Amino acid sequence: MEPIRFQKNEAAAQAIQTYYGRRPYVFTRSFGCQQSVNDGEKITGVLVDLGFGVCEEEEQADLIVFNTCAVREHAEHRVFGNIGALKTLKEKNPHLLIAVCGCMTQQESVVEKLKKSYPYVDIVFGTNGIDLLPGLILEKLTDRKRVLPKPVERRDIVEEIPIRRDSSYRAFLPIMYGCDNFCSYCIVPYVRGRERSRKSADILAEFCQLVDAGYKDITLLGQNVNSYGKGLDEEIDFSRLLQMLDQIPGDHRIRFMTSHPKDATYQLVDTIAQSQHISHHFHLPVQSGSNEILQKMNRKYTVESYLDLIHYAKERVPDMTYSSDIIVGFPGETEEDFRRTEALVREVEYMQLFTFIYSKRGGTVAATLPDDTPHKEKADRIARLIAIQDEIVDKLTQKMLGTTVKVLVEGPGRKEGVFTGRLDNNMVVEFEGDAPEGQFAQILLTSAKGAVLKGNLIK
Ligand code: 5AD
Ligand code: SF4
User: Fold this and answer.
1) Which of 71, 187, 301, 326 to mutate to test the pocket of ligand 1 (most atoms within 8 A of CB)?
2) Using one digit for the tens of pLDDT, what is the confidence trace for 347-383?
3) Is-above-0.90 flag for pTM?
């Protein structure tokens, strides 16, 4: 299917001018993953294109956009709390418009709740409707009624949406949208729809623009980057796409997330090993170290096949670091299952581990499974896992001391005279000395505290 090319809605721009009678300001707040952050940057971009300025405080805004996440229940509660707090702003400023979008609003129950209990929310739109926002604003301003359509699944890919990036040196670049995996705990396939890949020419064009504009750290995004290319007319897969992007000259690094272990290939590891720009870091979420739980999660790989790939990568790319997501307390997880997760974590030695207590999501298969592990037990398990992880990070960072690393400088830190930067695996490095933000610097590592490394700038 050919992508749609974004076009500015001039009638909406005109209606906004008339409604506010001056330059209005937008405040966009994004919750959730990098994909959501990137959507937020596009939402702001579209609004700037319509004549909005950008403000950093809700109180100064004429339009507030909450771009939400649905992946865990407590995140949803938090968003509802935050929307509730907007009521007083609306009372103070009747011209204020409030829009809610993102993964939460792809669920009909959420739109119903907003309709009924949050009368000051004016506009709702979904994850794949950013280009439609100007039309919704126009509808709101013309009819003076709330615009809260039922969520729909839209498969179009829309290219050339204006974007206002949060950073001038780190950028997200989506290569595909949606997810077809239906892991039994996960809401994403229901809220982001089926997998769709962008054409490689569109990705390459955006990539080159970023490199030309001086971006140093470009993260390719997708719910499952390893299935990139499925359904496209061209003969391409993720490794081939990486090889293509790796040819672009310049002083930048390429990262990608997220990989699904069932689709991550040995060839991908080879591609990383042979590349100029791809960071030696692999985020490969395992979720559990028990084959029974993996099966109940519908993950479609085994602990053995996962470890085989990790061992291959460790051999092929000796300085690679690893990170993972783990869900603790999935329905039916026994102490024995959990011990297998502990063993796996000890074996892989991840540099970063993102641990979550299982959160029941309505509409998913796991929500129908009996879950009789008490919350306290789950909390104990996650604490045990975090303690193991802390030990591993200490061990790994101690080994790095005395080596020189390349960091992307993020600017002055909280302490006077101390700057921060990031390694290509996203670890934070603090160092003394002044180095230009958004440029690479060489740092000699001298000490480590938890996951934060410290060192000195090498001139
Ligand atoms: N409960 C807890 N964690 C979840 N994740 C996704 N769905 C759930 C859920 N229902 C975690 C997974 C995923 C990460 C982004 O969030 O570990 O990899
Ligand atoms: Fe991202 Fe998933 Fe949250 Fe949507 S539900 S914002 S895809 S983490």
Assistant:
1) 71
2) 999 999 999 999 999 999 999 999 989 999 999 999 9
3) yes
